[in-house]
Structure formats: structure tokens, C-alpha cells
Amino acid sequence: MIVVTAAGGPTGTAVVRELRSRGEQVRAVVSRRGPRPELTALGAQVVVAELTAPMAWSSVLAGTDALYLVWPAFDPDEADGAPALFAEARRAGVPRVVYHSVLRPQLRTLPHHAAKDRAEEALDGSGLRSWRVLQPCAYAENVDGQLAETRASGVLRSHWGLRTGQSLVDLRDVAAAAAVLLLEDGLDGGTFEAAGPEALTAPRLAELIGARLDREVVAEDVVPGGEVPTSYVARCRRTQHDHQRAHGFVGSPRVLTALLGRPPRTYAEHLADLDL
Fold first, then answer.
1. What's 46's domain CATH number?
2. Residue 39 within any structural domain of the chain
3. For residue 77, what are the domain limits?
4. CA–CA gap between residue 144 and residue 212 (Å, rounded)
5. How confident is the model at residue 230 (pLDDT cuts 50, 70, 90)?
6. pLDDT for residue 207 is more than 80
7. Rounded CA Rg of the chain
8. Coil, strand, or helix at residue 23?
9. Would you say residue 214 lies in a domain?
10. Which listed site, 16, 26, 154, 211, has its alpha carbon 20 to 30 Å from 226?
11. What is the pLDDT of residue 132?
12. Residues 77, 52 contacting (CB under 8 angstroms)
């Protein structure tokens, strides 16, 4: 049995789907009660538990072979909450823990990266017998939400400018890498980057999207205005966009290629699989 947290979100659901496709039993942890057809249809056992309520975790983790810890995006409780869950996993005797981090967590000017960096530090000192870390780049799926608007307008809006690139990675490849880290031996104590095969600028994305939509698409620079917001989520998003505008967000695909046993999907391949 493998426990996957934040299983109702895109990352958690993708990991559950990948594990079930490999015949693994999965306990999918969600934070709120209610129907979860996307998980039950996969044959997952759905349980409700709050990530910040440790007393619930002894039963959630009982009898499990591994824990895949995904923390909800831009959640201010991660820096303290993830180490608490590592401690719960150790007390429960979970044989293996995989933590879903981010590419370059050491970017301390980005609050959500800094939180994951501190969580990784805590994992190293947690006393767990077997742990691994997956550090994905930005997802190719992050662009999907505006494709309908782009089809109508011919404009791709970029919050990270027009010059710098991102190694967008297909979430299916991230989930496949997560499964490898959960299931295979010989990887303990490792941190593994998961980056796509291309450094994609917004104009290059517009070109690829235009080819898929069979229409001209241009990239438009969406320049943020005003001071950096003070609320946690807004500050995370703004500092992320500011950093990507200045420096991009690019990683090497070599590690992901080794984990998958094949090259990661290109953005063109990602687009080809979408129903547009």
C-alpha cells in the first residue's frame, strides 16, 4: 500500500493514476470529505486527513509500504508541516518516504521554494530509513488553462517575459518518475531533478501552440505592476514570475531521462495529446 497526499490536486491525482496503472494499491489522502470520482474511478482507497493534524496519521500510515508527500501549492504551513509528517512516518515505521519538492529549492527569495528547502533539510535529519526527493520544474500543464483563450484570441499571455526559457515538464513524466522513486531500490538519499527537454521561451511556446491550433499565435508580455504583494500566495506567485522573468527556470533533462529510461516528452508531444 502506498499513501499519496494532496491526492485531489493535479500532482497527487497523476501519481495515483500512475501507481494504479502499475498495479499498486494506493491510499489517496484528501483534506475534505465529499465525492472523489477521479480517484475512486482509479480504484484508490480515499481517506480524509489534514496535513497539519498529526494525530490522524497513525491510522493513515498503518501498514503502508511508502509515503509520497505532496504539499498543496503555495501553502504557508509546508516548512513546518512537512517535517512533522516526516516524524509521523518515522514513528509509524513507514519503510520509504518520497518528498515532492521543486527544482532549485535553494532559491530563498521565493518563499515557496524556501519552504521546500527547509523541508528537505529536515528530511535529511529525520532518521527515516529510506527517503528520496523529486524536484520537478514547472509543468507543461501550467499553460493548458489558457489554450482555449489563445485559440480565440491568437495571444499567449506570458507572466515571465519573452526572453527567458523554462524547461516545462509533462506531469505524466513527473508521476512516472515518482513511481520509480517509490518502487525501486538503490535510490536512497537521492535528490532527483525532473525537467523537460527544452528551454522554452514564450515566443517558442506560441509558435508550437500555433502549429497545433493551425493559426498564428503571438506571445504577449504581461508585466506586473505595483509593489510585491504581502499575502503569502500572491507574494509567492509574484516573486516566482519576477525570478523567471530575470533568470528563466531551466534544468537538465538527463536525470529524468535516466529515471524514465527514455527522453521526457517534448512540449509538442504534450500538445499532441490534448483534445484541442
1. 3.40.50.720
2. yes
3. 2-137+170-194+251-264
4. 13
5. confident
6. yes
7. 19
8. coil
9. no
10. 154
11. 98
12. yes
pLDDT of 2 reads: 98
Using DSSP bridges, classify how beta strands 190-194 and 131-136 pair: parallel, antiparallel or unpaired: parallel
CA terminus-to-terminus distance, the chain: 36
For the entire predicted model, the pTM comes to: 0.95
Residue 63 falls inside a structural domain? yes
Amino acid at 267: Y
Residues 202 and 161: their CA atoms lie apart, in Å, by 7
Residues 6+ apart with CB under 8 A from 249: 103, 104, 137, 138, 160, 164, 165, 166, 167, 243
Burial class (CB in 10 A: 0-12, 13-18, 19+), 272: exposed
| Rounded-to-integer distance, Cα 44 and Cα 21, Å | 11
Exposure string over 42-75, b if 16+ CB within 10 A, otherwise e? bebebeebebeeeebbeebbeebebbbbbbbebb
User: How many domains would you assign to the chain?
Assistant: 1
Beta partners for residue 98, in sequence order: 68, 132
Residue 80 lies in a domain: yes
pLDDT digits (tens, 9 = 90+) for 70-103: 999 999 999 999 999 999 999 999 999 999 999 9
Q: Which residue has the cell 483563450?
A: 149
